[in-house]
């Protein structure tokens, strides 16, 4: 059966890519539970954070079994596969690539050998000292180790390799050493054969929460993933904290002082609306942003409509504060943004119509307020404005529930480059003319911060104001390690999956990767085209 290549798009036009999330991570320690299935459903709840690949690793006290592949969670796993992954501790990941290309060798969790066994690790975020860590790996163990030897080009594989490089230390002790060396954004969930670990960078840029099951513990990127598996929210994993969970209970270590700088864009776009941040749902925060946007930038209009789905809560708030009726003026095809098939030139000319279509009887003759979450290049808004005018709208006023995105993110969100960001070189009025709107306004940064209820000094706002809480890397880019001397990589080409299969099948017990072949499901993952 033909399979997709994993290069999924949010928009029908691959040249108009919106902000892409880094990854979703999930971990569970629960004896006597079906931990692989719990992880599957946890990842299902986090699918919005990454759609390129998915994987689950399960430890049973003696070994770790892993199954991972390109595609959505529902495409990678089925009932029979999950039934082969038995144990009491599991780590799961759904990926959007920020360091290392979108190919099978870079799917997570990554595996590596430790003095006592194997580590399986999943990462959300992006390191800023990747080049430095690569030098450290070269010095300590070389790159002929773990998944690095088979062409894994992610910063995650570097962390995994370093955690196994201390011969005289436990994994817990090694992790504390390695975490103290890492810089940038990293929320990690990892395990050996019996213990679950979770860690968060000192700034806590990317989210990570801790939940309690009746007979176990869960860690996840968002509280919505706790809800789906019936876990109660306990607290966030603290910035600079390493948590370990095993038969002796939960213990906490501090590897760095906390200096919180949570990502403000989580409130705008990244997190699910039913996720809780700072004690209230993201939906409530987005509604409040919409209220503030209405008070700050009022307009005479007949109808407020959202750009679904991320613009919906702010549109509700805008309508509420302005007194203008709220309505559905655009219908979304939920499946177009998840297709493997690129459109023909004829279909591409239809552009956004393949994803959104106007309700003509609703918008015709109306003065519209169109609420969206952000503008990146402006192509989507330009197409929307034109489409609404063609459907009969008399005026189109665009309101954006975030400030202009003018700076790149080095911490795990894949924006367009600064040169491609429309707000970098144009004023608001110039952008308005570019997209063809009657008016355009963004929420003020201070208003957005106040709506989040988190103090400004505890938020990363770099994509909006260019103030980076962590020193940006000298060299950045998804292909950073693919340009470095790692086995299996020539220039920026994708490594050979066939070569990975042949090497793994040799069963080298020193790198932990032979455990890939320990279950029928895992072996099948290696053999599938």
Outline the fold blueprint.
Layout: E1 23-29, H1 35-45, E2 53-59, E3 64-70, H2 73-76, H3 79-84, E4 89-95, E5 110-114, E6 117-127, H4 130-140, H5 155-163, H6 171-181, E7 184-191, E8 196-200, E9 209-213, E10 216-220, H7 223-228, E11 232-236, E12 241-246, E13 249-254, E14 262-263, H8 265-270, E15 276-277, E16 280-281, H9 282-296, E17 303-306, H10 312-322, E18 330-332, H11 345-350, E19 356-358, H12 360-363, E20 367-372, H13 379-390, E21 395-400, H14 422-425, H15 428-435, E22 439-442, H16 445-452, E23 459-460, H17 462-465, H18 497-505, H19 520-527
Parallel strand pairs: 14-23, 17-20, 20-21, 21-22
Antiparallel strand pairs: 1-4, 1-10, 2-3, 2-4, 5-6, 6-7, 7-8, 8-12, 9-10, 9-11, 12-13, 15-16, 18-19
Helix pairs in contact: 4-5, 9-10, 9-16
Strand order of the largest sheet: 3-2-4-1-10-9-11
Helix content: 25-40%
Structural class: alpha+beta
* Uncertain parts: 1-17, 487-529
- Could you tell me the number of beta strands? 23
Shape descriptor reads elongated
Give the strand content: 15-25%
Give the termini separation. Answer: 9 Å
By DSSP (H or I, 4+ residues per run), the number of helices equals 19
Question: What integer is the average pLDDT?
Answer: 84
- CA radius of gyration is 23 Å
- State the major sheet: 7 strands, antiparallel
């Amino acid at each position: 059966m033909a399979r997709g290549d994993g290069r999924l798009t949010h928009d029908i036009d691959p040249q108009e890519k919106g902000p892409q999330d880094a990854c979703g991570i999930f971990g569970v320690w629960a004896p006597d539970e079906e931990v692989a299935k719990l992880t599957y459903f946890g990842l299902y709840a986090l699918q919005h954070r990454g759609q390129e690949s998915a994987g689950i690793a399960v430890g049973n006290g003696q070994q770790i079994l892993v199954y991972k592949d390109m595609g959505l969670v529902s495409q990678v796993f089925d009932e029979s596969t999950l039934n082969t992954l038995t144990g009491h501790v599991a780590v799961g990941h759904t990926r959007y690539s920020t360091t290392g290309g979108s190919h099978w060798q870079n799917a997570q969790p990554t595996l590596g050998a430790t003095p006592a066994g194997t580590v399986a690790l999943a990462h959300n975020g992006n390191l800023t000292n990747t080049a430095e860590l690569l030098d450290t790996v070269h010095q300590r163990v070389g790159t002929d180790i773990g998944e690095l030897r088979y062409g894994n080009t992610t910063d995650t594989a570097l962390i995994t390799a370093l955690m196994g490089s201390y011969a005289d230390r436990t994994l817990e002790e090694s992790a504390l050493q390695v975490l103290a060396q890492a810089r940038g954004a990293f929320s990690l969930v990892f395990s050996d054969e019996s213990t679950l670990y979770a860690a968060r960078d000192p700034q806590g840029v990317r989210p990570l929460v801790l939940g309690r099951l009746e007979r176990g513990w869960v860690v996840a990127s968002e509280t919505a993933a706790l809800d789906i598996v019936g876990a109660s929210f306990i607290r966030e994993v603290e910035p600079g904290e390493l948590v370990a969970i095993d038969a002796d209970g939960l213990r906490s270590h501090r590897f760095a002082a906390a200096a919180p700088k949570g990502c403000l864009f989580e409130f705008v776009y990244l997190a699910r609306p039913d996720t809780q941040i700072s004690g209230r749902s993201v939906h409530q925060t987005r509604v409040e942003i919409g209220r503030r946007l209405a008070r700050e930038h009022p307009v005479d209009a007949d109808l407020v409509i959202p750009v679904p789905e991320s613009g919906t809560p702010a549109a509700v708030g805008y309508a509420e504060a302005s007194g203008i009726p709220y309505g559905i003026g655009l219908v979304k095809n939920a499946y177009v943004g998840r297709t493997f098939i690129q459109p023909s030139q004829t279909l591409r000319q239809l552009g956004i119509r393949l994803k959104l279509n106007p309700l003509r009887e609703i918008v015709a003759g109306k003065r519209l307020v169109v609420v969206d979450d952000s503008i990146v290049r402006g192509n989507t808004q330009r197409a929307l404005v034109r489409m609404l005018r063609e459907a009969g709208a008399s005026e189109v006023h665009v309101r954006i529930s975030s400030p202009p995105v003018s700076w790149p993110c080095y911490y795990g969100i894949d924006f367009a480059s600064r040169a491609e960001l429309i707000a970098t070189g144009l004023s608001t009025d110039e952008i308005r003319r570019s997209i063809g709107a009657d008016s355009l306004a963004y929420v003020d940064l201070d208003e957005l911060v106040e709506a989040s209820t988190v103090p400004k000094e505890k938020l990363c706002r770099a994509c909006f104001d260019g103030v980076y809480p962590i020193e940006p890397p000298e060299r950045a880019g998804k292909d950073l390690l693919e340009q470095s001397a790692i086995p299996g990589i020539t220039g920026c080409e994708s490594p050979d999956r066939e070569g990975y299969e042949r090497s793994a099948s040799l069963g080298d017990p020193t790198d932990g990767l032979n455990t890939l072949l320990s279950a029928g499901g895992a072996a099948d993952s290696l053999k599938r085209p």
